[in-house]
Amino acid sequence: MKAALRPGILPAAPLLALLASCSSDESAEAPPPPPCESAQFEDAVFTHCIAVPGRNSVHMVLGPKGGAPYRTMSELAVNRSPDKPAVAFAVNGGMFDASGQPIGYYVEEGERLHTLNTNEGPGNFHMKPNGVFYGDAGEHWHVRTSTEFAASVEERPDFGTQSGPMLVIDGQLHPQIAEDGASRKLRNGVGIDRTGAAHFVISDEPVSFGKLARYFRDGLKCDNALFLDGSVSSLWDPEHGRVDGGPPLGPLIVVEKRAKAAPRKEAP
Questions:
Q1: CA dist 241 to 36, 74, 77, 88, 238, Å?
Q2: CA angle at 84 for the pair 83 and 89, rounded to the nearest 5°
Q3: According to the model, what pLDDT value does residue 202 have?
Q4: Do the Cβ atoms of 90 and 84 come closer than 8 Å?
Q5: Residue 216, SS3?
Q6: Cα–Cα–Cα angle for 115, 264, 125, rounded to 5 degrees
Q7: Cα-flanking dihedrals φ and ψ of residue 146, to 5°?
Q8: Are 98 and 232 in contact (CB under 8 A)?
């Protein structure tokens, strides 16, 4: 005669199987959060995307090899080779001319297409100090003023793009940026926190330089941050189905879902 089981008590074999299943589930590595999420700072709405060393790799993309620049995010998406790693997200980043070519320092996959631009001139790019976002593809990403970059970088990075102005410099806001100036536009930028992660921010409504800079410094704890572009600021976020359109773009920053480092180093 079989022994009766009290309600709520499982036989030994099913119980062991259940415990093993729970243990397996708990030990399995949880998938990383979406790279891009909505965020709010000082009553303004932003989209915040993060690249993590070892989890992501960063690349500059201008256009197909030997071809004209991609001028939209959709053109980049359509022409993306299926053999390449999946895209976490992409943003536009770096000043450019009417044909989409960079007008400042630009390195793509270790090949330098434009030298550092230290000229004086009008507009945001020439609001000194401007800066460079650069690094190895899979790790060691940096934002530095153009002057510091020229003085300290001896090896050519895997990628690099020059823009301006700097938003945050060693924990301080750019000296020429007002607290909340009258100029309000869609704007995007990049900052590096103390863990080495790269934070990419695009405003979902017109904001001032000051508010964007404070978000990097106070909200994201980035000691150095660089303005990437305004008005034409665009994002490709595959996970949420977002592909921004608008005026023609120039250099593009593509963040992939797995690191791929380039070994060679040449003069910067």
A1: 11, 11, 11, 11, 5
A2: 140
A3: 98
A4: no
A5: helix
A6: 25
A7: -60, -35
A8: no
Q: How far apart are CA 251 and CA 268, in angstroms?
A: 19
CA-to-CA distance for 209 and 39, rounded, in angstroms?
17
CB 208 within 8 A of CB 124: no
- On whether the CB atoms of residues 235 and 49 are closer than 8 A, the answer is yes
Phi then psi for 78, rounded to 5 degrees? -65, -35
Task: State yes or no: pLDDT of 11 exceeds 50.
Answer: no
Judge whether 262 and 110 are in contact, CB under 8 Å.
yes
Q: Would you say how long the chain is, in residues?
A: 268
Is the pLDDT at 15 greater than 70, yes or no?
Answer: no
Residue-wise pLDDT tens digits, 86-96:
999 999 999 99
Per-residue pLDDT, averaged over 239-268, amounts to: 81
C-beta separation of 58 from 141 below 8 A: yes
Structure letter (DSSP) for residue 104: S
Which helix (H) or strand (E) covers residue 142, if one does?
A: strand 141-145
| Paired strand residues for 135 | 141, 159
User: Which tokens is 72 given?
Assistant: 């939209």
- Give the Cβ contact number of residue 36 at 10 Å: 23
Condensed to tens digits (0 to 9), the pLDDT of residues 227-249 reads 999 989 999 999 999 999 999 99
Write out the DSSP string of 29-87.
Answer: PPPPPPSEEEEEETTEEEEEEEE-BTTBEEEEE-SSTTSPPP-SHHHHHHH--TTSPPE
Beta pairing class for 36-41 and 44-51: antiparallel
Q: What is the pLDDT of residue 168?
A: 98
Tell me which H or E stretch contains 227: strand 222-230
Average pLDDT of span 142-158: 97
